[in-house]
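Dear colleague,

Thank you for sharing your sequence with our group. We've completed the structure prediction you requested, and as agreed, I am returning the results in plain text so they can be pasted directly into your records. Please verify that the sequence below matches your submission; if there's any discrepancy, let me know and we will rerun it promptly.
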Amino acid sequence: MDSEAAIVAAMSEAYRREGEAVPSYRAIREIIGLSLSDAICRLTPAIKPDGGGRIAANYRAGYAARNSSPALFPGVRETLSKLYDSGYCLAVATGKSRGGLAKAINDTDLGGLFVATRTADMSEPKPSPAMLHEILADLDVPAGAAIMIGDTDFDLAMAQAAGTQLAGVSYGAHPVERLLAYHPAFMLDDFGDLPNKMKTLN
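Please find the predicted structure tokens below.
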């Protein structure tokens, strides 16, 4: 999803409401993919727990108040449907909350494609491998037979720790050079290329 601008806007407003200095766009972009509590701790390490809790509540309320979720990147819906029809098991491991993920899936009408999901409030958040371990256990799939595709180094660090294959998306939240440090199997410049890229894996 093309959610970067929406996340930055909601986080900025959450800090303004608390009367805290608003982190820069770049700083907020850097924490995309983390759980909300971890993101706030990284943005403002010295903030007290009650202040961080209020910022988190402000963020959730502001993000949820949007009329709809951010748009999917081009080709995502068609590509996921093609992979599903080809027999791939599709799952989601995200820093969103259960409620946030449910809204995103509902708004984009993708619910029938995913056989398993994990969110940061259901498990240990990224970069811990716990979400992937739990998904793999649920589906009885060995780590080596799975691939995690992400646009942040938190995604790829999680995949590396879980022992899955991993790939990067070049147009997401973190710069390509950060993703390349994890030696991804491939980088996607166009999500529609994913089915062909999958054929190159062992």
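Summary note from our side: Residues 152 and 197 are 19 Å apart (CA to CA).

Kind regards,
the structure core
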